[in-house]
Specification:
With about 80 residues, the protein is an all-alpha fold. The protein contains two helices and no strands. Helix 1 runs antiparallel to helix 2.
Length: about 80
C-alpha cells in the first residue's frame, strides 16, 4: 500500500517540476518578446522614434545579453 502512495507522490512531484520548468521557459521567451514588440511595434503603429526611446530599448537588450553572458551555466 505504501508503494502506491509513494509512486503517486513521486508522480505529483515530477509533474510540479515539469510545470515549473515550462513556466520558466515561457518567462525567458516573454522577456525577448516584449523587447521585440517595443522595437518593431514602433514602425507599424507610428510611435515616436526619438533617440532616447530607442536607446532605452537598447539598454534593455544589453542588460538581458549581459546577464545571460555573466550567469554561470548550471546545466
Amino acid at each position: 500500500m505504501d508503494s502506491c502512495a509513494d509512486d503517486r507522490q513521486r508522480s505529483a512531484v515530477r509533474q510540479v517540476a515539469q510545470d515549473l520548468a515550462a513556466r520558466y521557459r515561457r518567462r525567458r521567451i516573454d522577456r525577448y518578446r516584449r523587447v521585440d514588440t517595443a522595437i518593431f511595434g514602433i514602425y507599424p503603429f507610428g510611435e515616436s522614434r526619438e533617440a532616447a526611446r530607442l536607446a532605452s530599448s537598447d539598454l534593455i537588450v544589453a542588460g538581458i545579453v549581459g546577464l545571460k553572458l555573466l550567469t554561470p551555466d548550471t546545466h
